[in-house]
């Protein structure tokens, strides 16, 4: 009953003229940035954060959430039309979306993606609405050791699940944690690694890291790929209509993969990218005609699209109810919360119900807006893909610089943005994944605090992490998430030998 | 000794982690706490050294896709360096000359440099974009951007 009342108050926020306006702004901006090949949701959120300064937290966060799921929704457009996914989570969509577009059925592919995304997103919001409050009320009793172990699990999960080498992902995470130790230690007041510079006393603002490692580094990759295909004016989309048999064919994958996507979104480390691949493979395995996959199959578009959007809303479960992000993107979302002075976590539902429920309620509305944007309006929106790459590059650089300047009014931070941009570029070139870095950067401070609180409680005895069941279980899971891939690797080698 | 890319990166990481540890061990101690300011940094430093050594000795070969990612023609690297130089110049002159003029100049020249040859469109964007953004930030959001040499 309480949840029902909460949801009603959430709809009051979401359906106020202010709420409607900011949901709309959020999803439109998210869709547009998400469509841009190479620019992902992290860049979209980071670029929009400065806009929220001074705004009321509820509408601001409703907007930021819209940017996030809007970006995932919009990413499919460039996957289908250009075979250049805007978002990692929509790579799997291009497997069948692009071939279908090549057959002159781009409109149909976009329509399938939009409908599947809408259903996946909406199913997932319903599940989010049921699960988040329940998890909140359990999490309220978690002590510092459990929190420390949870965050550790988040970091190990993202490292072992990120694409490429687990070792490199771990190095990336440790480096992110190291960067956050720069500045004044909040507990003892000791200056750490500041080299006596006033500019480093407060450490690095997370926006410098997020915009540098993602927006600026992504721009560097765009510079290298600037001659790649952008949309030509002559490209015809074809009809957007779906026949009854099309809808029937996609109903199976959509209904299954919405749940799969949600579950994978809730779990730490997975998120939209992994869930979309898993869903694609899942549907291919059980399909009666698996040979159609990769050649423009309806199921091949519907499965990853329903799954990645479901995962996006699912990722809000740990963020809202535990205050712990499970992925790079939700880590930046957490940053957006903190900028506005809102601490997500088990107390959010009690202390700021209008924000907790406002975000959830706004997602219903946002998904409807996205369906309208991505179905009847898509021919007009897709025109943004015709923006010449050189212009896009200069504009994104400007957005990043202005964004960083507007948090501190300090030119030093702009130089730091440039440096982190270079670091992000080299990480991409040498295949070190960036999401573990940003997640560790966001979680690092919280982990250190939780560790110290635990040690204070136990009088400096480390056994506090293994004597109660919850932290112990979580730490065992964290360890297993490394050992299992290593052991599997060893076994594979033996088989090869 | 430094044949593979992993070995080279591993060595650089060991050096970085070593310098970090060196600084970390010099942190002053604070008597009234169970976990001092250097505990976590020390742990992180040693962890990074361990991981870097594992990377040095890891025998996983680079995949073709990874090699491809690394193979960037020298000319393209120079283009990228030039873009960085332009950003550096922008930051350096940003507060002196002001947001509007510098942003306009940057967009025009950066887009032109990267191969955009429709100068009329470029000029229009270079004028309208800074003015719009300045308007949004200064008048709508109340965030002051450097005015520089312009009177408004």
Automatic annotation (TrEMBL), chain A:
InterPro entries: DUF112_TM (IPR002823). The keyword Transmembrane applies. Pfam families: TctA. Residues 20-439 form the DUF112 domain. The chain crosses the membrane at residues 20-49, 61-82, 109-131, 138-161, 204-224, 259-282, 316-343, 355-378, 390-408, 414-443, 464-488. Keywords: Membrane, Transmembrane, Transmembrane helix. This is Transporter.
From TrEMBL, chain B:
The keyword Endoplasmic reticulum does not apply. InterPro entries: DUF1468 (IPR009936). Residues 9-146 form the DUF1468 domain. The keyword 4Fe-4S does not apply. The chain crosses the membrane at residues 9-27, 39-57, 77-93, 99-116, 123-145. This is Tripartite tricarboxylate transporter TctB family protein. It comes from Jeotgalibacillus proteolyticus. Keywords: Membrane, Transmembrane, Transmembrane helix.
